[in-house]
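Milestone M4 deliverable, item 7.
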Amino acid sequence: MGLFDLINPFSYVTPVHADEDETEKVEFVASDPVEEESTEEEAEVEEEEEAVEEEEEEAVDPSEEIKRECGETLHCKSLKHHLDECTARVEAGASESCAEELLHFMHCVDKCAVPQIFAKLK
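Output delivered:
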C-alpha cells in the first residue's frame, strides 16, 4: 500500500471490471394501490395532453418563404451567383473564404425580407 492509496478518498471503493458478469436481476412490483391509481391518473393526463396537441395547429413561419423569394430577386440573384462561383472555386481547391460573398448575399436577402415580414406580423 503506497502513499497515494492512503490519501485517495476513493480507496474504499471496490473496482469493478467489465469482464466480470455479476449482475443481479431486480424486479420492481407495484403492489401499492396508491401507486396504481397515480399511474392511471398520469395516463389520463397524458391522453388529454396528446388530444390538446393534436387540436392545436402549428404556426407556419412566413419568413422562410419570404427570404427564399427575396433570394430570387434580380439584385440578390447576382450576389447569389458570386457566392456560387466562390463556392465552386473553394471546392476546386482554392484557399479563399466565401465569407464576404455570403454576408453580401444575406444582407441583400434580409434587407428585402424584413419589411415584408413585419408587414405580415401586424
